[in-house]
Amino acid sequence: DVKVTQSSRYLVKRTGEKVFLECVQDMDHENMFWYRQDPGLGLRLIYFSYDVKMKEKGDIPEGYSVSREKKERFSLILESASTNQTSMYLCASSQDSGGYEQYFGPGTRLTVT
Amino acid sequence: QKEVEQNSGPLSVPEGAIASLNCTYSDRVSQSFFWYRQYSGKSPELIMSIYSNGDKEDGRFTAQLNKASQYVSLLIRDSQPSDSATYLCAVNSGTGGFKTIFGAGTRLFVKA
């Protein structure tokens, strides 16, 4: 079974703090993704990576950056957290072949106060 | 224009009935289609994948794909209260390789 883990299930941070969200997958997947999910807005892609050290902006990259130094690990960084970044953050991974099915981690519910 | 559209619901069905969830997509060259189940407060879980026209069955779940009509559906037979969740339709962009477009989801309630 594919396993995707995220560093925290719940996180509370203050406005202006730098926030790191980490994601690790154990299936040697090439592709990794960061989404945020908000009520009524569905899943929105923040960034994705198709290889180590490679990254591409998704639909809503503003205020975020990412790092992928190792194949199994993909980090999302909030440079200066703001209250409008309060959300559920979901990491996913997929193989670079076949149907590209994405498998999700458990999510991190981030609250910025 | 939304690329993957679903009725947000809620769809309410009695226990034991068939629940029918529908999805349309706009990218004609899409190749892979998925259904995810998401319980409240949890992350999406892949329950079905379908790649060719027709039906694909897995237990109580049947996915149906019609590429000509750009339509994909999920049938849940003998619905159980534990099936109550939001169901996300997802489509792999035919031109974008591994990038997947998700619908906003349909909320399903199964009444005991």
What is shown here, in short?
Chain A is mainly β and 113 residues long.
Characterization of this structure:
The complex is a heterodimer of chains A (113) and B (112). With 113 residues, chain A is mostly beta strands. Chain A contains no helices and eleven strands. In chain A, strands 2, 4, 5, 6, 9, 10 and 11 form a seven-stranded mixed beta sheet that branches. In chain A, β5 and β6 (54-57) form a beta hairpin. The relative contact order of chain A is 0.34. The model of chain A has no long low-confidence stretch (mean pLDDT 94). Chain B has strands at residues 4-6, 11-14, 19-25, 32-38, 45-50, 54-58, 61-66, 71-76, 85-92, 100-102, 106-111. The N and C termini of chain B lie far apart (37 Å). The model of chain B has no long low-confidence stretch (mean pLDDT 92). The chains are: A mainly beta (113), B mainly beta (112). Chains A and B meet through β5 and β10 of A and β5 and β9 of B.
Give the topology string of chain B: H per helix, E per strand: EEEEEEEEEEE
What is the 3D form of chain B?
A: globular
| Biggest interface between chains | A-B, 20 and 21 residues
Instruction: Indicate the structural class of chain A.
Output: mainly beta
Structural class of chain B: mainly beta
Poorly predicted regions of chain B: none
Report mean pLDDT of chain B, rounded to a whole number: 92
Total number of helices of chain A: 0
The pLDDT mean of chain A sits at 94
Alpha-carbon Rg of chain B, integer:
13 Å
| Rg calc of chain A | 13 Å
Main β-sheet of chain A, in a few words? Answer: 7 strands, mixed
